Amino acid sequence: MTAPSTSPAPVDAAPRSALASGAPAGGAVLEERVVDGAPTAVHTFGDPDAPPLLALHGLRGSHHGLAPLATRLGGLRVVVPDLPGFGASPPFRDRAHDVAGYARWAGALLRDLGPGTALLGHSFGSIVATALSAVTAPRALVLVNPIAEPASSAGGITGAGTRATALLHEGAARLGLAGVLRHRLLADAATASMTTTTDPALRRWIAAEHREHFGTFAGIGSLMEAFRAAGAGSARPWAPLVTAPVLLLAGGRDRVAPAAGQHALAAAFPDARLVVLPRTGHLVHYEAPAWAAREIAGFLGR
């Protein structure tokens, strides 16, 4: 394993126009595909003849969140599906919205993209991507703000926030109050807890993105299955089984996936490199997409 490193690179904003409401983000090509029996909205950025990178977004996200990063990965064909149950992809009809269900679906898409496809996952997507990489080796694995330990085991402020969020979700689910979980105040709370930049324009842009896309889940049932899987899981159990080279990009001020746990996670992989951006939190893909793209491009040898 390569020794972890930190990077003093500044954060950088993506233009608001990169995430156009109601349309594929950043000029991506949208294709409606059936992946392992699941209708899926697949968004492709970049040169269609370039080497492919399959990117999996996090919980309550969609392809929009990864657009600032995807549009900066020149020389790659970045394929960003909306996970079933989120964005424009309807829920699964034949399986749970958990790590196993999503890994099976993502594995089918990885095979469709062909040999030599690299794999990326952000947050909950990092758990799914690592679980898949443990059984089907991609060319390389990139984890952005990876979940190093279950959120339910976190202590301190992070743990208290996780428990409060879980209580809110479980209560709203029992009462069938999907509107509560789509309310802008919940999106604003997510922005406040995960955003670290002091740039007011960037903070406003991130808040607008969360307000627009945080509630684009299909229904309470599929949301809660994914929410529970995300809260109880981590990438750690699968890490020792991953034979592909791994790049971990972490935020030094990440309160969802604290940097302290990233070192242990990196050490669990047979071949991994950890890079920490000190002043960034859980939204590397929003706050520092150009920095992340440079790290990923260097790792993949582009």
How would you summarize what this structure contains?
With 302 residues, the protein is of the alpha/beta class. The chain has helices at residues 63-70, 99-113, 124-133, 156-175, 178-181, 184-194, 200-213, 220-232, 259-268, 284-287, 289-300, and strands at 5-6, 29-35, 38-45, 52-56, 77-81, 118-122, 141-144, 246-251, 272-277.
Task: Give a structural overview.
The structure is a single chain. The radius of gyration is 17 Å and the shape is globular. The protein has helices at 63-70, 99-113, 124-133, 156-175, 178-181, 184-194, 200-213, 220-232, 259-268, 284-287, 289-300; strands at 5-6, 29-35, 38-45, 52-56, 77-81, 118-122, 141-144, 246-251, 272-277. The protein is built from 11 helices and 9 strands. The model is unreliable at 13-25 (pLDDT under 50). The protein is α/β, with parallel strands linked by helices. It has a single domain (5-300), classed as 3-Layer(aba) Sandwich (Rossmann fold). Helix 2 (99-113) crosses helix 3. Residues 54-294 form the AB hydrolase-1 domain.
